Amino acid sequence: MDGRGYDQLRPVSFELGIAPHAGGSVLVSMGNTRVICGVMIEETVPRWMKEQNVTGGWLTAEYSMLPYATQQRKPRDIVKGRIDGRSSEIQRLIGRSLRAVVDLEKLGPRTMWVDCDVLQADGGTRTAAITGSSLAVAIACRKLAREKKVDAPPIRKLVAAVSAGTLNGQTIVDLNYEEDKAVSVDFNLVATEDGEFVEVQGSGEEATFAQSQLDELLALARKGIAELIAAQRVILARIMVSPPEC
Length: 246
Description:
The protein is an alpha+beta fold. It contains seven helices and nine strands.
Protein backbone atom coordinates (compact mmCIF):
# COMPACT_ATOMS: atom_id res chain seq x y z
CA MET A 1 0.00 0.00 0.00
CA ASP A 2 2.97 2.36 0.49
CA GLY A 3 4.51 1.62 -2.91
CA ARG A 4 7.33 -0.72 -1.83
CA GLY A 5 7.93 -4.07 -3.55
CA TYR A 6 6.01 -7.13 -2.37
CA ASP A 7 9.26 -8.66 -1.05
CA GLN A 8 10.67 -5.40 0.32
CA LEU A 9 10.98 -4.62 4.02
CA ARG A 10 9.98 -1.22 5.28
CA PRO A 11 12.99 1.01 6.09
CA VAL A 12 14.84 -0.46 9.09
CA SER A 13 17.10 1.38 11.53
CA PHE A 14 18.63 0.82 14.96
CA GLU A 15 19.55 3.62 17.36
CA LEU A 16 21.79 2.42 20.19
CA GLY A 17 22.15 3.73 23.73
CA ILE A 18 18.61 5.07 23.91
CA ALA A 19 18.45 4.14 27.63
CA PRO A 20 21.85 4.92 29.22
CA HIS A 21 21.21 2.96 32.44
CA ALA A 22 20.41 -0.26 30.58
CA GLY A 23 23.04 -2.89 29.86
CA GLY A 24 21.98 -2.71 26.22
CA SER A 25 19.30 -0.59 24.59
CA VAL A 26 18.03 -0.08 21.07
CA LEU A 27 15.35 2.03 19.44
CA VAL A 28 14.31 -0.10 16.47
CA SER A 29 12.31 1.43 13.63
CA MET A 30 10.57 -0.62 10.96
CA GLY A 31 8.67 1.81 8.82
CA ASN A 32 6.58 3.90 11.21
CA THR A 33 6.70 1.27 13.96
CA ARG A 34 9.18 2.25 16.66
CA VAL A 35 10.01 0.16 19.74
CA ILE A 36 12.42 0.86 22.59
CA CYS A 37 14.15 -2.34 23.72
CA GLY A 38 16.19 -2.23 26.93
CA VAL A 39 18.05 -4.95 28.80
CA MET A 40 18.91 -4.90 32.49
CA ILE A 41 20.60 -7.66 34.48
CA GLU A 42 19.97 -8.55 38.11
CA GLU A 43 22.46 -10.64 40.09
CA THR A 44 19.77 -13.05 41.21
CA VAL A 45 17.39 -15.63 39.77
CA PRO A 46 13.64 -16.20 40.26
CA ARG A 47 12.59 -17.99 43.42
CA TRP A 48 11.26 -20.97 41.49
CA MET A 49 14.76 -21.65 40.16
CA LYS A 50 16.19 -21.67 43.67
CA GLU A 51 13.39 -23.88 45.00
CA GLN A 52 13.80 -26.39 42.16
CA ASN A 53 17.62 -26.22 42.20
CA VAL A 54 17.72 -25.12 38.56
CA THR A 55 21.23 -24.03 37.58
CA GLY A 56 22.19 -21.14 35.35
CA GLY A 57 20.29 -17.93 34.82
CA TRP A 58 16.98 -16.75 33.40
CA LEU A 59 15.74 -14.36 30.72
CA THR A 60 12.29 -12.85 30.74
CA ALA A 61 10.55 -10.10 28.79
CA GLU A 62 7.91 -7.45 29.34
CA TYR A 63 6.04 -5.66 26.55
CA SER A 64 3.76 -2.68 26.58
CA MET A 65 2.41 -0.02 24.28
CA LEU A 66 2.82 3.53 25.48
CA PRO A 67 -0.52 5.38 25.69
CA TYR A 68 0.37 7.60 22.73
CA ALA A 69 1.68 4.78 20.49
CA THR A 70 -1.60 4.63 18.59
CA GLN A 71 -3.93 7.28 17.16
CA GLN A 72 -6.39 6.75 20.00
CA ARG A 73 -4.91 6.76 23.49
CA LYS A 74 -4.33 3.29 24.91
CA PRO A 75 -4.80 3.17 28.71
CA ARG A 76 -1.90 1.71 30.68
CA ASP A 77 -2.38 -1.80 32.00
CA ILE A 78 -1.88 -0.57 35.56
CA VAL A 79 -5.09 1.43 35.24
CA LYS A 80 -7.00 -1.77 34.44
CA GLY A 81 -5.22 -3.64 37.21
CA ARG A 82 -4.05 -6.42 34.89
CA ILE A 83 -2.02 -6.95 31.76
CA ASP A 84 -4.18 -7.46 28.68
CA GLY A 85 -4.15 -10.78 26.84
CA ARG A 86 -2.39 -9.46 23.76
CA SER A 87 0.50 -7.96 25.73
CA SER A 88 0.87 -11.14 27.76
CA GLU A 89 1.03 -13.27 24.59
CA ILE A 90 3.59 -10.97 22.96
CA GLN A 91 5.93 -10.74 25.95
CA ARG A 92 5.94 -14.51 26.27
CA LEU A 93 6.82 -14.76 22.57
CA ILE A 94 9.69 -12.30 23.03
CA GLY A 95 11.00 -14.26 26.02
CA ARG A 96 10.83 -17.60 24.18
CA SER A 97 12.56 -16.13 21.14
CA LEU A 98 15.50 -14.80 23.14
CA ARG A 99 15.89 -17.78 25.44
CA ALA A 100 16.31 -19.87 22.28
CA VAL A 101 19.57 -18.05 21.49
CA VAL A 102 21.00 -17.28 24.95
CA ASP A 103 23.01 -19.90 26.84
CA LEU A 104 21.42 -19.62 30.28
CA GLU A 105 24.14 -21.75 31.88
CA LYS A 106 26.82 -19.35 30.66
CA LEU A 107 24.73 -16.41 31.82
CA GLY A 108 25.20 -17.68 35.36
CA PRO A 109 22.91 -17.03 38.34
CA ARG A 110 21.46 -13.83 36.89
CA THR A 111 18.16 -12.64 35.49
CA MET A 112 18.19 -10.77 32.19
CA TRP A 113 15.17 -8.49 31.92
CA VAL A 114 14.15 -7.41 28.43
CA ASP A 115 11.70 -4.51 28.36
CA CYS A 116 10.00 -3.56 25.11
CA ASP A 117 7.97 -0.36 24.95
CA VAL A 118 6.17 0.57 21.75
CA LEU A 119 6.69 4.24 21.03
CA GLN A 120 4.74 4.24 17.76
CA ALA A 121 2.63 1.41 16.38
CA ASP A 122 2.09 0.86 12.66
CA GLY A 123 1.98 -2.93 12.40
CA GLY A 124 4.55 -5.53 13.34
CA THR A 125 5.23 -4.35 16.89
CA ARG A 126 5.95 -7.89 18.15
CA THR A 127 8.34 -8.66 15.30
CA ALA A 128 10.13 -5.32 15.69
CA ALA A 129 10.41 -5.93 19.45
CA ILE A 130 12.08 -9.30 18.90
CA THR A 131 14.47 -7.95 16.27
CA GLY A 132 15.46 -4.94 18.38
CA SER A 133 15.75 -6.99 21.57
CA SER A 134 18.10 -9.46 19.90
CA LEU A 135 20.50 -6.62 19.24
CA ALA A 136 20.05 -5.15 22.74
CA VAL A 137 20.72 -8.57 24.32
CA ALA A 138 23.84 -9.04 22.19
CA ILE A 139 25.16 -5.68 23.41
CA ALA A 140 24.33 -6.50 27.04
CA CYS A 141 26.06 -9.88 26.74
CA ARG A 142 29.12 -8.21 25.28
CA LYS A 143 29.15 -5.82 28.25
CA LEU A 144 28.98 -8.74 30.70
CA ALA A 145 32.04 -10.29 29.06
CA ARG A 146 33.88 -6.98 28.96
CA GLU A 147 33.28 -6.58 32.70
CA LYS A 148 34.68 -10.13 33.25
CA LYS A 149 31.41 -11.35 34.76
CA VAL A 150 31.27 -14.17 32.20
CA ASP A 151 34.03 -15.87 30.22
CA ALA A 152 32.36 -15.14 26.87
CA PRO A 153 29.14 -13.44 25.74
CA PRO A 154 26.34 -15.95 26.47
CA ILE A 155 24.38 -15.18 23.31
CA ARG A 156 24.89 -18.00 20.81
CA LYS A 157 23.41 -16.38 17.70
CA LEU A 158 21.13 -13.59 16.60
CA VAL A 159 17.39 -13.91 16.12
CA ALA A 160 14.90 -11.77 14.20
CA ALA A 161 11.22 -11.79 13.32
CA VAL A 162 9.03 -10.48 10.53
CA SER A 163 5.41 -10.56 9.46
CA ALA A 164 4.01 -11.59 6.10
CA GLY A 165 0.56 -11.93 4.60
CA THR A 166 -1.58 -12.41 1.54
CA LEU A 167 -3.09 -9.19 0.21
CA ASN A 168 -5.39 -9.40 -2.81
CA GLY A 169 -3.77 -12.68 -3.80
CA GLN A 170 -0.21 -11.34 -3.48
CA THR A 171 2.16 -12.47 -0.75
CA ILE A 172 3.86 -9.48 0.93
CA VAL A 173 6.30 -9.05 3.81
CA ASP A 174 6.58 -6.74 6.84
CA LEU A 175 2.99 -5.55 7.05
CA ASN A 176 2.08 -2.06 8.15
CA TYR A 177 -1.18 -1.48 10.02
CA GLU A 178 -3.36 -0.87 6.95
CA GLU A 179 -1.95 -3.94 5.22
CA ASP A 180 -2.36 -6.03 8.35
CA LYS A 181 -6.05 -5.09 8.51
CA ALA A 182 -6.62 -6.03 4.87
CA VAL A 183 -4.75 -9.35 4.47
CA SER A 184 -6.59 -12.64 4.10
CA VAL A 185 -3.71 -14.60 5.67
CA ASP A 186 -1.63 -13.29 8.58
CA PHE A 187 1.78 -14.81 9.30
CA ASN A 188 4.68 -14.20 11.70
CA LEU A 189 8.03 -15.97 11.65
CA VAL A 190 10.81 -15.94 14.25
CA ALA A 191 14.09 -17.50 13.12
CA THR A 192 17.79 -17.47 13.94
CA GLU A 193 20.65 -16.28 11.78
CA ASP A 194 21.43 -19.85 10.70
CA GLY A 195 17.86 -20.29 9.44
CA GLU A 196 16.43 -22.36 12.28
CA PHE A 197 12.86 -21.63 13.33
CA VAL A 198 11.91 -20.47 16.81
CA GLU A 199 8.22 -19.87 16.21
CA VAL A 200 5.80 -19.93 13.28
CA GLN A 201 2.42 -18.22 13.64
CA GLY A 202 -0.11 -18.23 10.84
CA SER A 203 -3.85 -17.94 10.47
CA GLY A 204 -6.51 -17.25 7.88
CA GLU A 205 -8.50 -14.07 8.46
CA GLU A 206 -12.00 -15.43 7.72
CA ALA A 207 -10.31 -17.45 4.98
CA THR A 208 -8.35 -20.62 4.35
CA PHE A 209 -4.99 -20.94 2.65
CA ALA A 210 -3.23 -23.63 0.65
CA GLN A 211 0.13 -25.32 1.19
CA SER A 212 1.52 -23.33 -1.75
CA GLN A 213 0.56 -20.06 -0.03
CA LEU A 214 2.20 -21.21 3.20
CA ASP A 215 5.38 -22.04 1.27
CA GLU A 216 5.37 -18.56 -0.30
CA LEU A 217 4.85 -16.88 3.07
CA LEU A 218 7.65 -18.91 4.62
CA ALA A 219 10.10 -18.18 1.81
CA LEU A 220 9.35 -14.46 1.84
CA ALA A 221 9.60 -14.22 5.63
CA ARG A 222 12.91 -16.12 5.67
CA LYS A 223 14.29 -13.69 3.10
CA GLY A 224 13.16 -10.76 5.25
CA ILE A 225 14.73 -12.25 8.39
CA ALA A 226 18.04 -12.75 6.56
CA GLU A 227 18.01 -9.04 5.65
CA LEU A 228 17.19 -8.02 9.23
CA ILE A 229 20.00 -10.12 10.68
CA ALA A 230 22.40 -8.68 8.10
CA ALA A 231 21.40 -5.21 9.36
CA GLN A 232 21.97 -6.33 12.96
CA ARG A 233 25.41 -7.65 11.97
CA VAL A 234 26.36 -4.30 10.44
CA ILE A 235 25.60 -2.58 13.77
CA LEU A 236 27.52 -5.17 15.81
CA ALA A 237 30.52 -4.95 13.49
CA ARG A 238 30.51 -1.19 13.94
CA ILE A 239 30.41 -1.24 17.75
CA MET A 240 33.12 -3.88 17.98
CA VAL A 241 35.57 -1.16 16.93
CA SER A 242 33.84 1.59 18.89
CA PRO A 243 34.55 2.76 22.46
CA PRO A 244 33.24 0.52 25.28
CA GLU A 245 30.43 2.97 26.08
CA CYS A 246 28.60 1.65 23.00
